[in-house]
Amino acid sequence: MKFSSLISMALAASQPAFASIGNTWQFTGKPKGGLRDITFPFRMEGATHKEGYFFAQQFSFQGLQSESVCGLKTQSNQPDGPTGRSVIRAVFSTYQPGATTEDSNCHNGVDGGPGITCTADFYGDYIAIFNILIENVGGTTWKATAINTSTGRGVHIGTWTLPSSAGGINSKQYGFIEYTPWNSGRHLCKNLPRTAATMYNPFSKTPGAGTGRLNAPYQYLDCVNFMGFSIQKVPNGYHVQCGFYSAPSRRSEALMLPDAAEEETSVRS
Fold first, then answer.
1. What residues contact residue 66 under an 8 Å CB cut-off, 6+ apart?
2. What percentage of the chain carries pLDDT values higher than 70?
C-alpha cells in the first residue's frame, strides 16, 4: 500500500492502530527527461520467514500524477527439508490509470484500485542484499528485476507500459515499511511482530543522476513511540528494527541453509 494511502486510512479510521515506518530518498542530480533506470537495494536479514512485512520504495514518473512502488515481502518457507526453503516475494506495481501489461507475472489493479501489480516468488537467502533494478526498455515500458548481489543471479518481476505522457523517473520520493495484516481491523501497538531489515541508498546509471541518498527512516501513524522502533546508520543505508514479539529471527537458520548457493528460481505452486 502506498505511503499516501496509509496516511488517508489513518485519518479516516478511529479504531484501528496503524504502525508504519517511512523514509525519503533523493538524487543530487536532476537529469532532463528523468531517470531511465533506478536500483533500490534491500536486505531482510532480521525478518522472520512468515507472510506480513513489506519493505518498499516508491517512485514516480514525469508527466504522471500516480505513484509506483517496488519492494520485497516476507513469505513462509516452502516445506522442503527439515526447516524448509526461504521464499521472497518481489513486487513491482504502478497505481497509474491507463497502464497496461502483457506480462504473465502481472495483473490489473492495485489495492482495489487502478493500475498494474507484478509479483515474483522465488527461493532466496534473507541474509543477501537484493537489488531491485527498474529500467526503461523502450518508449514508456518499464521492467523490474530482483538481483541477488551475492550470486549475481536475477529474477524477472514484471513489465508494464505507462500512458504516452509518461517521462522518466523523478529524482526523489518516499519509501515505507508496513505490516500488511494491519491494513484492516483493530490492533494493539504492543502486538506488532518484531522485524528488522536494512535499506540502502538508491543508485542510477542515468547520466546526470548524481548520487542517491536514503534519509533516516522515521515512525508515523498511530504507533509512534509505541512500536519498538530503532535505527542504526550503516554504510550506504540504515538498519531498521521494530515490533515486540514473534518467532526468533531466522538469521541463524538462514546461515545454515544453502540458499545463497541456490539459483533464484521462481516458486511454483
1. 60, 94, 95, 96, 97, 114, 115
2. 83
- How many DSSP H helices and E strands does the chain contain? 2, 16
pTM: 0.87
Degrees to nearest 5, angle at CA 267 with 108 and 156: 55
Is residue 259 exposed (0-12), middle (13-18) or buried (19+ Cβ within 10 Å)? buried
Take residue 73 and report the three cell numbers written for it.
Answer: 515481502
State percent of the chain over pLDDT 90. 75
Rounded Cα gap, residues 53 and 195, in angstroms: 8
Say which CATH topology domain 3-261 has. Jelly Rolls (2.60.120)
Q: 13 pLDDT exceeds 90?
A: no
CB neighbours of residue 267 within 10 Å: 15
* Domain ranges within the chain, ordered by starting residue: 3-261
Distance of CA 187 to the CA centre of its chain: 23
Which pLDDT band, with edges at 50, 70 and 90, does 21 fall under? Answer: very high
Residue 62, CA distances (Å) to 32, 59, 170 in order: 10, 10, 6
**Residue of 149 and 1 predicted with greater confidence:** 149
Q: Do 145 and 105 contact (CB within 8 A), yes or no? A: no
Contact 228, 194 (CB under 8 A): yes
pLDDT of residue 225: 94
Residue 53 pLDDT > 80: yes
Residue type (1 letter), 210: G
pLDDT of the residue at 186: 81
CA 10 to chain centre: 21
> Alpha carbon of 130 to those of 9, 19, 55, 149, 260: distances in Å?
30, 25, 12, 6, 11
